[in-house]
């Protein structure tokens, strides 16, 4: 019979159960995480877009206001008023009283020299005719410069407006501290790695970024800019192995670009924390599922194993019983067939013996030889008879006659039969009888036969010098009586132990044992509704236990 | 008449004849029958005290012969012999009226004792009736 591989069974149950329970959990976890994170990323991009837009609008508005202020100033003043130094200083003081954006204001003639100047610097005698902005404003009428140093070596921008009156032209020029833009973008520089700055169309920085450069230096951008475009662009880009979210847009009134960089790690921290929690919960869930599966599977497999073991025992018992029945029939048949010729042989020998009593026969010289020979024939017929009779005894399928039997008394009587034999061989027989044993309904002769066989075997196993311990007890839980026969004999090897109850199996020399003693004992006890078990250690001894149901 | 008259019924001729020779040697009047019908025939022709009856015989077995014998000549005592340890048949035989039941191969002295006992019983019951 094939026995189940319980280790493999256990493993496959655990693997499948855990697999099937974790799969949906993991899919759910990963799905939620991805949806959550993509929603969060979308929100992050949206926020950045809004931020870039609002900053651009603020800078545009600022530039617009300044430009319209200077334009208004230029158109409000006549040529005479413009060249009037005190008047300009008054107007400048008025402008500064409301806003502090301007550094100075100058009115410059077409010759490049100041007609009037209001401001903190002494620019007397400077000529702007060859300056770049001078040419630009002359040709375009209005000009806003990039950040540059100028004569004063301070970074600034200028707003210049050309005014014509009749055939006279002049330029009104205001200087604005470029720090003002710095303050615009500084306010959006967030997080540890966030940044914001302005660039002109040649990618020259107009403000100081936090990382990688200063105003009026070239800036390396991680994205390509191909001309002006409408609206805001947002993109995730990797700079020196770190991922950033960039948003950029062109100003409306100036060929400047606003760039804002955000560190998603800063922004995503709440998301990571949520994610961490999710992973923690998931790990907890996984641990609980695995632990539960292992515990359930273990107990299940243990039960299965127990059931299998009991089934195997039952099978073994049934096999043994079946074997007994079949062998019993065969033994009876064989015994009968042999008994008849044995009977004839015996009678022939008997007849020869009868004839040997005749005087003439006694006178034959070989008389003694013949006489011995006949005796031997009789002797060996006797020997064969014991074998066939025992075989028939084994095969006997009669109902045992049941009486109430006192287990202890019966065992005590049985021991008496073999006491002399044991004494001769220096074997100590000890009785440990349980007290107040209930009686058993049994066939006393048959039970005694079993006890006799077991004690006889124990004596044979010991040979000389040893001890036999006989114990009786009552198992209340199963309502059965047990008689335990323990010897300090030679023991039985495991291979032999399997065959020990088989009929005709013997370890004794030919002629000494029939190999039926234990088979008969097994059959008797089985018929009495009990069982025999055996345990043995080679070299140490053997223990037979007979169980019979108590009344 | 001091010695019993015995009929030995067995299908094994060798067994039968040897037993008869040994019995005659001991002064018994003995006859053989090799089957049930032959035995019944002999019994009706001649009177016997004890019949040794083998249970396992081809055709009519010992139990049937016993039944018939007890009907026709109930005074004859019967000793059943068998090579088969079928205790049921033994008990059955005894209940029908057999005197005793012996297992082959039987010890000759034992057989003589059984015959003696059966003959004794026959004589007692005979004198009683």
Kindly describe this structure.
The complex is a heterodimer of chains A (551) and B (129). Chain A is α+β, with helices and mostly antiparallel strands and 551 residues long. Chain A is 52% helix and 20% strand. Chain A has 13 helices and 16 strands. Chain A has helices at residues 6-76, 79-83, 85-98, 132-140, 179-186, 264-267, 269-355, 359-362, 367-395, 407-424, 444-462, 494-499, 517-527; strands at 102-109, 114-118, 142-144, 156-165, 168-177, 195-200, 232-239, 242-250, 256-262, 403-405, 427-432, 440-442, 466-475, 480-487, 531-537, 541-549. In chain A, helix 1 packs antiparallel against helix 7 (269-355), helix 10 (407-424) runs parallel beside helix 11 and helix 11 (444-462) runs antiparallel to helix 13 (517-527). Chain B has 129 residues and is α/β, with parallel strands linked by helices. Chain B is 50% helix and 19% strand. Chain B has a 5-stranded parallel sheet, with helices on both faces. In chain B, helix 4 (87-96) links the parallel strand 4 (77-82) and strand 5 (100-103). In chain B, helix 2 (36-45) runs parallel beside helix 3 and helix 3 runs parallel beside helix 4 (87-96). The chains are: A alpha+beta (551), B alpha/beta (129). At the A-B interface, helix 7 and helix 9 of A face helix 1 of B.
